[in-house]
Amino acid sequence: MEYLIRRAPAKPELRGLWDGPAWRSADVAEIASFHPQSSADHRPATQVRMLHDDNGLHALFRVRDRYVVCTKTENQSLTCKDSCVEVYLQPFPNKGYLNFEMNCGGTLLLFYVIDATRSPAGIFRHKLIVPQSLIDMMRIGHSMPKTLPAEITEPALWSVEFFIPYGLIETYVGKLPAPEQRTWRGNFHKCADDSSRPHWASWSPIGEPLNFHRPEAFGTFLFES
């Protein structure tokens, strides 16, 4: 699997404008590989677009959903329990990856995972929790409220859009080369563990077991120069 992150023709406005001037030329990735444990009667259509500029990366997710849940309001809480989209980024094969896990209300879980081997003491054998001071460098937009009082059982279209500055990424992996010299690894995901119709989908198939944290299953991200 390959995804080309095109250069932004204009600065995205954090308004979820899927076909707006900044986004209409971006390639679309379909998050459509559902794990067999997913609910059989609800498999939301989820798409993502990414762009890059001189300052960082932009991501826009669009979800045609139902059974939407959103209860987590504190960053670094388990946003995957809610209706959630994710992008994992591994700029260098010999270093760790960053997992941006954002619920539909714009709340984020973000680690730098160095060793994704499962460990009872801390889920991963080796990870660093990204501090709020670095998360504050991001810009985030979302179409849903910050939290929902109850699950939305009717069809709903929602989006989240965010900007990741290179400074955040370079804090963990060091200086990044020019776009034309980059070959990153990563994946896109959609999940909702605590929905009445739980599901787990990815762009690049993860196989078995049910575990998004499998660098060997990552696809390739290329950058338009």
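Second entry:
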Amino acid sequence: MPFISLPDLKSHYEKAGNGQTAVVCVHGNIASWRWWLPLLDKPPAGCTVYAPDMRGFGDSERPGGGYAIEQFATDLDAFVSRMGLDRIHLVGHSLGAAVALQFAVQCPHKVKKLLLVSPPPAEGMTCSTQEDHAVFGLTLPHIAENTHLQFFFRNAHMDRAILSHVLTRITPGMDHGSKLFSDLVDDASRVSRETLKGVVQSLGSWAVKDRLPALGMPVLILWGDKDTVVDCGPLERMVGDLPHAELVVWQGIGHAPQLEQPDRFQALLTEFVSENAATGKPSPAQRLWQWSKTLWKRQAGNP
């Protein structure tokens, strides 16, 4: 279980592979490095995959503060520097996608390509009461109508049974009887109220939409059409604001494609980090076709 000392944090991380291409994966809210475990078990050829635990999560230290997206990105910068990495392929999931995007905005010269999995909207969150609506770093409108979940987020967020129910709901394609799923629930139950509160408050004010046009690296956004956490509309707008971006939609997948279809995710990442992978932005005609297909599927109620 390796650790690395950052300026004010002892950070745990996992590493797999021995290739020259550095891939750094950032987990989401109430999560840990284990959300990348299938990828660590089968890293893309020619790659070395790093999966650090952010402060307050997994096996990293839990300092008294600093649970904001900007600080997470600063920690990531320190991690990349301490590991001696140059330009990295950066992958972020959920809250980790916001951290990855913030890092790309702060240090664009350090990011070769950016893969955002089920990311929060770069335009910012839109909810009336952040404490009631935010979890995993994202907006959950259905929580407003669910008094049981409201009680959980206000008073009992470490309850393992409720966490298991929530994680089951957002990962419909995962084996919920597996040891990995049980470990994910355990990691979620270890997150402190202070950490969760800091994350929610940060997400309430975080927005980088105006800075997207300056990002010149290729960006791939991955979303599952059964994701009950993230809506596709803001992601389509993100693609429109980025110079070299593409949105990929997987059918029948929820909020965690890397866990629900790990082999497919590994293949997607392998292709994306390839030097021969397409890096241009889809043409207006391609984007219109993509949008039309998504709209038709929504109207038709297709999975």
